[in-house]
Amino acid sequence: MSEDGMARLERLNSMLKRRSIILPAFEIHGGAAGMYDFGAIGGRLRNRVNQMWLEHWLSQGDVVEINCPTVTPYSVLEASGHVGEFSDFLVSCSKCGEASRADHLLESHLPNPDSLGKDELGAAIVKYQPECPSCHDIQWGEVSAQNLMFNTTLGAGSGGREAFIRPETAQGMFTNFQSLYRHFRQRLPFGAVQIGKGYRNEISPRQGMIRLREFNMGELEYFIDPEVEPSHDFSCWKEDIFSMLPDGQDAVNLSIPDALESGMIRHPTVAWFMARTADLLLKLGIDGKRLRFRQHESTEMAHYASDCWDAEIEGSYGWVECVGIAHRGCYDLEAHETHTGQRLKAWRGWAESVERKRTVVTIDGATAGPAFRSGAGDVKQALEELDSVPSTFPFILKLHGGESVEVLEEHIKVEERHEVINGEWFTPHVVEPAFGIDRIIWHLLDHAWTETEKNGEPYSLLALSPNIAPIDVAVLPLMEKGGMDILAKNLHLELCSLSGILSNYDASGSIGRRYARADEIGIPWCVTIDHQSLDDGSATVRNRDDQEQVRVSIEEIAALIHNGGMSERFS
RNA sequence: GCGGGUGUGGUGAAGUGGUAUCACCUGAGGUUUCCAACCUCAUGUCGUGGGUUCAAUUCCCGCCACCCGCACCA
Q: Which domain holds residue A502?
């Protein structure tokens, strides 16, 4: 970062703190790294960004909002792969209390201990009895997962169940798949969003709000049938050109439909969410010239993903990934299905039923039952999956469990079966746009903060979009007396009573000072009640960005602020 | 986690082994006050814990936080 950039960053951070937008959390207790408060102005800003994010996705018509607990049982995150990816397994020495990495202790005993799970490591430690590096004792406690996920316990005492505070919101959408599938009356595609907190116990949080330990995120999981060609309408994005960096190569400028056409974007639904994401970011107020899409290189992509694009935004910290849009295939649903035995599939009905006559080998219950006893069910399953009727007896049949049994001719019978198949179960694929809300808010502020000069003095304003401005309007009596104060207070109360509108009444200091205060926290409109207001019921409305003023009847002001029509008065 | 730097009102700074100064901001009053004007008055500070000392914001040590490298990292 340049000297100038760093100095600007310091000034911006001072302002954010001074005006109660974003400030270090728990500061009177010495602070906590990687955590921030959204203050008197910032709290509302965050809420409006969240609200716009939600409305943007729900407006698609086939997306619902859900909300799941942040405390998540161990097995959920084990199934998702987070325990393996995000954790180191630690084990404490019972004698000296020193915690060591379980896989490091076993390095001299096993080829690649870092690939082992928690239980396997525990067993290996009992078996190989490695020495404690600090006291050389061999008494070890339980293996526990540590590190990037915050761990906790569901329930008290030794009977408590191991859990984590979630590192992302996505898993809730997968664990709810059956319920969502019913809600959408078993028709794909559909999606579910969740906006909320995620937690990662980062080793060293850095760069302000860019890497946090507790962060706001919003994720959308969109489930599709991989065999159905998606029908997305890209016509309104044909003219919108974005900077794109495909697969580690240099940037090219292309529209999203063209990038899809050329094969650079590998799936239409990924392209669709890139376009919709760009729409949202621009609507929130991100500078389009400082937005680009970068495709993950194959080496950087998770093994299950087939395409992944980041929306990156340029700000004081350079280009920062703020949104990841990934085609995750069937990975997540399959993982939860494997771990739970629950069916997480969708039904694909065929246009025409298939009738099938089939010769099936099965068991003769009367003889096979006594012969195989509790194993008879497994034998039946293995037999029915055979492609042909065995020609010689006895023969060796391999079961699913891996063991083999000897089957005699008297154990089996051959049936002709008539089957009508109307469709099939399949695991839907999922496309996941994941948003780092704090990073987006940071860049909204970074892009909106404008330092200029006014009458030779430095002057700063926050040119936030009226869509997300924390306060919609300021009402300023030119003097707080003579009836101007009463008119102004009434207007202020009228504005505050409107749904979704927040007004700020400010009567202290000169009028110029009050305009400056309003500009600094991004209030789009200032209404000044002056002497003329007392005579004809009009007031001056001032625009934040160009300081233009027009006179508007006070009676009309609330409606114009409420319906967003104020800017038309300025043309 | 390693190395380097930094912590003084809300913000930005000055300074000191005898509990601290300035500007801006903020608040009250005055000024027929439309872009941080002016006058009077007021609120508010040495990150934190321990040590040395009669006395520590100042010296020493630990911790916490912030910034910069490195490492780590959806």
A: 471-570
